[in-house]
Design goal:
The chain has about 140 residues and is α/β, with parallel strands linked by helices. The chain is about 45% helix and about 20% strand.
């Protein structure tokens, strides 16, 4: 069983995640959620999640600061970003900081589940966008 804690300031995303994953059939359980960082820090202490799922842009807060705060307080819990932001710049920045996965909110349930399973097993899941950008940069003129 993979236990997730999700931090997202959009109510519909939180509700959708609770409805999308069923512990019995998916092996994924949402053990808690929060709509802001203050609420997240209060609730996380008692949840013991395997993965923290963090919205990149939470109202009135900075993405890098949110990650640092969570990572410093819970260094052994991997963090996966879940966002509508698809810029390569943010993806690379967050992986350099230490996130273990980066998901777009438009991903399918199966893709999300795959990322959560891989991250729960200790693997970093790098999006194709980063891989393709690195390959195109390295395959310049010879």
């Amino acid at each position: 069983m993979i236990k997730l804690f999700i931090i997202d300031d959009h109510f519909l995303i939180l509700e959708g995640m609770y409805k999308a994953f069923d512990a019995a059939t998916d092996g994924i359980e949402l053990v808690g959620s929060a709509q802001n960082m203050e609420e997240a820090l209060e609730k996380l202490a008692g949840c013991n999640p395997d993965i923290i799922v963090l919205d990149l842009f939470i109202h009135d807060s900075l993405p890098a600061e949110n990650f640092k705060l969570l990572h410093n307080r819970y260094p052994s819990i991997p963090i996966v970003i879940l966002t509508m932001e698809d810029s390569l710049r943010w993806q690379i920045k967050m992986f350099k900081m230490g996130v273990m996965g980066f998901l777009n909110k438009s991903e399918t349930k199966e893709n999300m589940k795959s990322v959560f399973v891989q991250v729960a097993h200790g693997n970093m899941v790098i999006p194709d966008t980063i891989s393709k950008a690195l390959i195109s940069k390295s395959s310049g003129p010879r």
